[in-house]
Amino acid sequence: MNKNSSNMMALAPNTSEKRETVCIFGTGDFGRALGHKMIQSGYPVVYGSRRTQISNLIPKDAEVLGHTEAAQKAAIIIIAIQRQHYNFLTPLAEVLRGKVLVDISNNLKLNQYPESNAEHLAQLLPGSKVVKAFNTVSAWALQSGMLDASRQVFVCGDDLKAKQTVMNIVRALGLTPLDKGSLLAAQEIENYPLQLFPMWKFPIFLSLGLTAFFFFYCVALEIIYTYIYENNDFSFFIAITIPNRVCPVMALILLALVYLPGIFAAIIQLYRGTKYRRFPDWLDKWMLCRKQLGLIALAFASLHVVFTLVTPMRAFVSWRTSKRIISQALNNQTEPLDHTNAWLSDSYLALGILGFFLFVLLGITSLPSVSNNVNWREFRFVQSKLGYLSLILCTAHTLVYGGKWFLNPLAYKWYLPDIYILSLIIPCAVLVVKFLLVFPCVDKPLTQIRQGSERNPKYSE
Amino acid sequence: MNKNSSNMMALAPNTSEKRETVCIFGTGDFGRALGHKMIQSGYPVVYGSRRTQISNLIPKDAEVLGHTEAAQKAAIIIIAIQRQHYNFLTPLAEVLRGKVLVDISNNLKLNQYPESNAEHLAQLLPGSKVVKAFNTVSAWALQSGMLDASRQVFVCGDDLKAKQTVMNIVRALGLTPLDKGSLLAAQEIENYPLQLFPMWKFPIFLSLGLTAFFFFYCVALEIIYTYIYENNDFSFFIAITIPNRVCPVMALILLALVYLPGIFAAIIQLYRGTKYRRFPDWLDKWMLCRKQLGLIALAFASLHVVFTLVTPMRAFVSWRTSKRIISQALNNQTEPLDHTNAWLSDSYLALGILGFFLFVLLGITSLPSVSNNVNWREFRFVQSKLGYLSLILCTAHTLVYGGKWFLNPLAYKWYLPDIYILSLIIPCAVLVVKFLLVFPCVDKPLTQIRQGSERNPKYSE
Amino acid sequence: MNKNSSNMMALAPNTSEKRETVCIFGTGDFGRALGHKMIQSGYPVVYGSRRTQISNLIPKDAEVLGHTEAAQKAAIIIIAIQRQHYNFLTPLAEVLRGKVLVDISNNLKLNQYPESNAEHLAQLLPGSKVVKAFNTVSAWALQSGMLDASRQVFVCGDDLKAKQTVMNIVRALGLTPLDKGSLLAAQEIENYPLQLFPMWKFPIFLSLGLTAFFFFYCVALEIIYTYIYENNDFSFFIAITIPNRVCPVMALILLALVYLPGIFAAIIQLYRGTKYRRFPDWLDKWMLCRKQLGLIALAFASLHVVFTLVTPMRAFVSWRTSKRIISQALNNQTEPLDHTNAWLSDSYLALGILGFFLFVLLGITSLPSVSNNVNWREFRFVQSKLGYLSLILCTAHTLVYGGKWFLNPLAYKWYLPDIYILSLIIPCAVLVVKFLLVFPCVDKPLTQIRQGSERNPKYSE
């Protein structure tokens, strides 16, 4: 076929006529949009349709014929009809023999049918070469040129040459084909466009829930308590003060939740003495969404940083500073520098900055293009070593910040602890257990288990 | 051929002799640079040249022969000569039959010839397998190892095996081949290295023009007006104060310009009642540079953030603060906290922070490696839903900031409005029309049109 | 083979039975982990082992047979045994003829053997089709599903179809195959997982050394000197003040070191009059780690920005400000605005912001996914033009900051200059020489040399 196209080229040097004719079965929305785009890219297009007269919806330069005549005109037939009508193709089996059929269909639900549409088509027409493609692109995107992103078109099929032909068409339309292997991948490809951040759902709901809890906890302690007992209206704390308390707490807890499943996994493996038994389902799922948890933690940490940095610009803070300075000036006194305070304030800020810096590094290495360029050893070094270092620094940042209030009974309004105390529970627990796991007497058997040895080989029988 | 190379390997285990001989026609700069690199990577190189004696420019380990003898020694011939001399290859057609010819040529202008150089070569020598490659790499980069980026080598060709062979050579030189399909892609590949950010040209010139206008507008109102009427020299405002006024204005206007073409498109479609007619050319072009507009808006927003955050470090601000506090102290008075002001200041900052946060999220999802990992539904969710949310937050941020000055006649120097008032026109217009378009009575017909229905089927005939 | 798999599918529509049987030689850790994963992905797995009875370690659904029987059951055999035992495969040559052998082995050291394990295997069994794959994935990652990153599996092999088959398996396991070409790439693939940021080693050690030097230099001048001669304890400067002096110095020096090798290269080429001789080794190595130097410089610059922005939040700074304002208030005086100071402070900040902004742009364009989307001309424009602009702005930022102290003898404690003076040496030298190189009388011959001309053709003979 490559030979032919090269010959065609020699005969017809004009760009718009060099391409091979493509046949499209079905004049629905996607069929029309794809036809438009193909004609723009220089492909002659023939539509196969039952009603050959409705030509006004169809691109002007396209021909409309009956199915059989249209199929005979092209080596590639795009099946732009719905799966439930695939049966009508069976009588055309002889015409379609040896031709490339491109299945572009999508379903309405995940795993709607036991086998994918493309595999169903391949079973109906075993003599044709079925290729799955184009289902990840929307008709609206094709039509309006809104292809800023998602230029990727997943392609799969059992016939290498047929797949190459379709991938060439994909490239000619300005899209990027991605070979997903044999037709067995069609199910996954058909499920793909139906997803809306499936890996992010649990982490986002967890974060929203925790954020709401901590927010109202803070509103109660900071605003309502102050209003009731001190008769001060600090309702404007809702805008910055309270978000800037909730964000660091969320960041620290979520970062600790990234490392907690690894701790659980190590304990389970030590207890079982083997790595060859599957983890409980909840742990598996948790492990798979660690990256998402980490990125949400990073988002909260970034918000905390910006909320903190705007502090001097707040009217409330500037009023408070003025008040303090004026009262000192009126009392004719200048406080000496409190060295302990200077140390605490500076080391607290420095710990936070370094922890956040490492956190951002982790975030950058989790960008797909960066993580694809590091090997397994490097990835583990960054995510494990630097990640724990970041957790240690951020926990220390929180400890130094709140250190002096821990044992102060005045800090407990309504006998409730401040949220930064709550936020320290999980990180400290993770760090303590991780510290124990690093000891040689624990680390050695764990390493052996992870290298495949079994303490009790009979266990798994 | 793969079989052969595997046999060769068995006979010659030493790395530097395992590779197949490559012939290079032409001893110009690129031919020499490529030959150097290939010899370094272990390929025996034979040059084909008219003058076989000028060997001092040519890598020492390379042989130099006449064209015919050189071509007979290799299965792959790299054509490192200019298109205008391709004709001299015609007599060699018989020697080159069945061989892989690699066209590495570039042109001086976009679309200089009606057909690409590689297609021209394929027409001259129909018996050879022409592959386009290496034209995107510069000789200087090859020579000096300066391949930090742009390791990508676009490869296209009609013969699959020939393409694979060339891609293997590309990989062996430490570069990354990218299959662009059949030889029809050669035109695009030849145009590629001539481009200098073609999609960025219009957005950058627009931004520069608007920035210059707003900058001088501000200089007039803030510095010249103050100098003339108040006799104050605030010329140092040029460094930070005025840039920090222009940046947010530019960010907001450009962000609104990202969403304006979508509004126009919806109105045009509603008016025409069909999506199958092309948009006017200006709208098409505008739509295609929305990503660039958005990223420039993000750059301005980031500058605004940093310019704002350094405020407390400015000598002028610190002088102003001192003056205010000292005058209060000398008057022996302490102002009470102004709750309205505290609310306004905090909510203005919080709106800005959240808007900027969403804006950065949009920027991250527009990184190629991230946007390739989201499907169409997810991309639209982020770019449309979160994008509009960001626009709403940023507009609200500006409204709250300037709210109290809107109707204040003192704010109008020389009867001209402040630039933040100008900056609100487009964003507010976009948000109002978008709000109308979301109403069911408008949204429903629009959705139908975008799903392919036509209100007036005769229209497009 | 594709035909067969399509037939199989028609007969056995159930997902778990559609895949072709895979044979694994060796029941070690990786063999077991891979078998587990393959069974999960629907592949029937047969183990080939000497001891067919130890079935408790092996996945339950897998069969365990002798090597010959196992090999006969599958077209693909994964060789999960160590290189030193490859010899035992020689007697099986007849059974393995025509089959796909997947070499997954790794070595313990870089370039441990003269030829790669996969090539060794191909020499032992010339009748089989050897494909290298899976060696970049760790058994522990496969087992625990911890594949957040590094989903990439490098694949190479001489037989195209065999490679395609293995790539389909890789895809089916949820991993991303990356074709690295012929089996000659096996050595590189086997070395890959042993690396730990090889390109980063020198830049990181250089940065650590310089940082330590500047840190202790500052500690001596700022803390020890002050303690001895002024009896002030400023030990808390260690947390923020001194890091915020070292970071900008390191950023500026490293940024200059990115552009210094280019200067050296230009001088060497001008001196030699040719570009066809290799640079000295140290220059080659330096050139190859410029990207890493630049990114470390960016990290230091980012730390400097954050350290600077938290300044107003420091207890020490707030104490110093109060003290200054109170003393003014007590003296009943208000200083007038110092215009020179306002200009210096604002322009110093503005230069730093713009320099940092361009620096971040450079960082973003060096992300692999971004740099892959720009052509050579665009990359050079960004990295060279914008890079030099950033260096100029950052150097000016430092000059304006320290300008007034340069000639002040009080600035020289112990007759030692402040570190920002040291930091200016290399950047200023680079900028001055670059300025000279831009002059036409120097630029013209340099451009000619880089386009391939030789001043003295005999030189390289």
Could you characterize the architecture of this molecule?
Chains A, B, C: Keywords: Copper, Endosome, FAD, Flavoprotein, Ion transport, Iron, Iron transport, Membrane, Metal-binding, Oxidoreductase, Transmembrane, Transmembrane helix, Transport. Chains A, B, C: This is STEA4 Metalloreductase. Chains A, B, C: Its cofactor is FAD; heme b. Chains A, B, C: It catalyses: 2 Cu(+) + NADP(+) + H(+) = 2 Cu(2+) + NADPH; 2 Fe(2+) + NADP(+) + H(+) = 2 Fe(3+) + NADPH. Chains A, B, C: Residues 21-107 form the Pyrroline-5-carboxylate reductase catalytic N-terminal domain. 3 copies of one chain form a homotrimer. The first copy, chain A, has 461 residues and is α/β, with parallel strands linked by helices. The first copy, chain A, folds into 2 domains: 22-194, NAD(P)-binding Rossmann-like Domain (Rossmann fold, 3-Layer(aba) Sandwich); 200-451, Up-down Bundle (Four Helix Bundle (Hemerythrin (Met), subunit A)). Chain A contains 19 helices and 8 strands. Chain A has helices spanning 2-11, 15-18, 29-40, 67-72, 93-96, 117-124, 139-144, 160-172, 186-191, 201-230, 243-272, 281-288, 290-309, 315-330, 339-365, 368-371, 376-402, 419-438, 440-450; strands at 22-25, 45-48, 63-65, 76-79, 100-103, 129-132, 152-157, 176-179. Chain A has an 8-stranded mixed β-sheet with strand order 3-2-1-4-5-6-7-8, sandwiched between helices. In chain A, helix 3 (29-40) links the parallel strand 1 (22-25) and strand 2. In chain A, helix 10 (201-230) crosses helix 11 (243-272), helix 11 packs antiparallel against helix 13 and helix 13 (290-309) packs across helix 15. The longest helix of chain A is centred in the middle third of the chain and has 30 residues, at 201-230. Residues 1-17 of chain A have low confidence and may be disordered. At the A-B interface, helix 1, helix 3, helix 7, helix 8 and helix 13 of A face helix 6, helix 12, helix 13, helix 14 and helix 15 of B.
